Amino acid sequence: MRRAIPDRPGMHRYRTHTCGQLRDSDIGKDVRLSGWCHRIRDHGGVLFIDLRDHYGLTQVVADPDSPAFKTAETLRSEWVVRIDGKVRRRPGGTENADLPTGQVEVYISEIEVLGPAGDLPMPVFGDQEYPEETRLKYRFLDLRRERLHNNIMMRGAVIDSIRRRMKEQGFFEFQTPILTASSPEGARDYLVPSRIHPGKFYALPQAPQQFKQLIMVSGFDRYFQIAPCFRDEDARADRSPGEFYQLDLEMSFVTQQDVFDAVEPVIKGVFEEFANGRAVTPKFPMIPFAEAMRKYGSDKPDLRNPLTMQNVTEAFRDSGFKIFAGMIAADPKVEVWAIPAPKGGNRAFCDRMNSWAQQEGQPGLGYIFWREGEEGGAGPLARNIGPERTKIIADQMKLGIGDACFFIAGKPEQFVKFAGPARTKVGEELGLIDKGRFELCWIVDFPMFEWNEEEKKIDFSHNPFSMPNIEPDAFLKLDPNDRDTILGLKAIQYDIVCNGVELSSGAIRNHRPDVMKKAFAIAGYGEDVLEAKFGGMLRALSLGAPPHGGIAPGIDRIVMLLCGEENLREVVLFPMNQRAEDLLMGAPSEVTPKQLRELHIRLNLPEK
To answer: Scanning 14, 107, 110, 327, which has its CA 20 to 30 A from the CA of 449?
Structure first.
C-alpha cells in the first residue's frame, strides 16, 4: 500500500495545495493533497472520497481505470493519505455550492497511506451527539469535527482581536507568575509541593489579582494579559473545572468611568467583529445592582428578555386575597412583585407556569389573566381582590385582553432567586427572547456590606478590596455601630453582563491602608488578621500606591457566546469533565513512591 515516493522536481513531499484551495483556475493541473478520509462513497464501482485537512474538503475520485483504485478500495474513515492526481471539473449537476472547492474534483493517480486508523469510537463525519465521556476521552477525534474545529479557530481569532484592541488602547502585555503563594480568600487553591522546601507549597493563581495591583504600585500604567487562572471548584456550564482564561487588566490613576471608556470599546468591538450579523448593544447601559435585582431578579440580567418586574404590594394590601394581605400586614418587609406575561392570557399557560413553580420547590405561582367578556380579569386572585384592584395592576403593568400577570410574595431577598428564573421562564415560554442579539450592560453600585443573619454581624458583600463609593475621610469617620448607614454603602465595583452571562467583575481598588483597615474592622477583622493574611499587599500600598482599578472578562465565556454554545467545554481545546478529570491524559493520576519521598509527602487517603 505504501509506495516509493516519486521523484518529481518541485513537488512537495506531502502537498502542493491544501484541501480547501483548489478552484476552477486549477483545472488541468497535477496536484498532491494530504489529509483525512472524511467520507467515502461507492457509486457503482466509482469511489468518491472527501479528503479533509485543516483548511477544508476536496472531493477526490478513483474508478477501476485508475492505477490507485485497488489501494482506494482499502481506505476507511479517518485514514490519513497522500494522493496525487489531476484537477478536473465536476460533471454537470454534481457541483457543491456549499464548498469553496465544490466546482472541481481530483482524479487520483496514486495513493500513499500515511496513517491508517483503527475502528473509531465515534465518527468524525456528521454532528451526532455522543456521551461526554467518549467525547473527552477521544478529544482529538472530537476536535476534527467541523463545529468544534471552527469553535477553536474562532477562539484564536477572538484572542488575536482582543490583544490587538488592548494594545491600541495603550495597554502593555506582561506575564505574572504561575507558581505563587496560597490565597486565604476565594475558591480552593491547587497546591504544588516544593521539593527543595520540605513541607511548603506553592499555589497556582486563582487570578493574578495581587500581582496586577503590584504592577500598578511598581509604576507601570496600563497592564493586560490573557491570563490562565486555576480554581479547585465544582464545574458549571459557564465555568470550567480546574482552569480558565481571562482578559486580565489594570489601570493607574483612573475612575470607574475611565475603566469603562477603555474596556467597553474592546468588548463591543470584539462582539461586533464576530457577531456574524447579530446586533450588538451600541452603548452599554449602566444598571445599578438594586435596580437589576428589582426589575430582573438577577445581577446578570438577560436584556434580550423585555419583561421587567414591578412592585404591586399596595394592590394586595388589605385585599380579599388573605394569603398576600396577611403576609403584608404581618411584616413591613414583605412585598408582592408582578411578572408581566403579554399574550399569555389563557388558563392553560397560567396553569403550566404554576406547575413549573411547584417543580421548582415553590407552593405555586399566583396569576391573573385578562380575556374578552370578563370584567376585572380571570383566575382565583382576580375574584379575591376584585375588579378595581385588578385594573390598578393592569394599568401599572400595561396589560390588557389576552395578557397575564404572575405574582410572588415575601421578603425580596428571600424570593428573588426564584423571581429571576420565573421571569426568564415566562420570556422563554412566550418566545419573547430575541436570540439574534448580544445585549451587554454594566452592573454598578454593588453593596459594600451585608448583614449576616446567622452570625448576627456585618460581612463584606462582594469584593473586600474595593474602594467604598464615598470620600476616604468620610468613610474613616463612620461609626461601625451605625448599621443602617454601613449597609447602605456602595462599593466601586462593576460587572459586564451579556445575554444573562456574567463576563467579568471589576473594581476600583482600595489603595489606602487606613481605609482598608477600617473596612475590615467593620466586618469584624482585626489588624492582626489583615496583616497575617495580606501583609505583603499592605506593605506595598503603604509605600506610595496610585489609585488604580481594573476588570477581568472571561475569554472562555466570550467565545462561548460568540459561538452560540451553551457549555464552555465546546470552546476549550482539552477540557476536564464535571469531576475535574482529564479523561484523555488520565489526570489526576497517582505518582510513584519515589516521587512522594522526594517531596517528603506521605499519603493519608480516606477509607473506601
So the answer is: 327
